[in-house]
Each structure stands twice: as structure tokens, then as C-alpha cells.
Structure prediction request, 143 residues.
Amino acid sequence: METVTFTENQKLRATKKIKEMFGHIDPKAPPEICPIRDVMALASDKWSMLIIIYLGYFPVLRFNQLKRRVYGISNKVLSERLKLLERDGYLSRKVYAEVPIRVEYALTDFGYSYLEKLLELTEWAMRNSPEVLENRQARQGEL
Prediction:
């Protein structure tokens, strides 16, 4: 009898899950019709992920506080991402009628449910970054 390794079991589970999730999709349909593309495009870009992680760590942040923490993001991109994340239900926006105006952002319950999955991916990335960097170094110049 052949022994199945942990990696082989992971492959089998992943393949089974993909078939369960996507087996209903018509293989003749145009590839641009994807049931998850629209959702994952916003939720998984580097800026949105950082915004969600910081709002998970700091329950309420204002625009400039987020800007300082999400290093390298422009005002325009931050503003766009916040609007889109609010539109899709990941975060809430509370405006205070003060001078100057005060706006605070916080994750919704839906946002926290996504954060939970995002943290699993983040843990994986942190745990495997040495291997990725090693592979990158070993293959430098091949591409």
C-alpha cells in the first residue's frame, strides 16, 4: 500500500474543493465571466488588504491615521479604496458634523469575517516568505 504524504492530501483536498466550487461553470463560457473576480479584485489588492488589516488592529481610524499607516498610498487611492470598501460592506464610515469635519472608518461584521480569512493568508505568507525569497534568489536572472 502506498503512503500518501501531507502535501498529496493537500492537493487532493484543494482539487476536490475547486471542483465543488467551480464544477457548475460552463467550460464553454467566456473566461472573463468569473463568479468571484469582481469580489476578489477589490478585497485582495495590496492597498485594500492593508486598510482592512489596520482597521482590524485599530478599531476606528480617521483618514490621515490610515494614510500614515498604509505606507506609500496616495490620498486619491486611499479615498477610492475606502469608498469601494464601504460600498461593498467591508467597512463603515461615520461623519461628524464638526469644524473641521471628522470622518471615522471601522470594519463591519462582514469586514471582520473577511479579515479572519485574510489573516490566515497573511500567516501563510509570513511563514513561507523565507522559501519564496530563497526561490527568488535561486532563479534570479532566469526570467
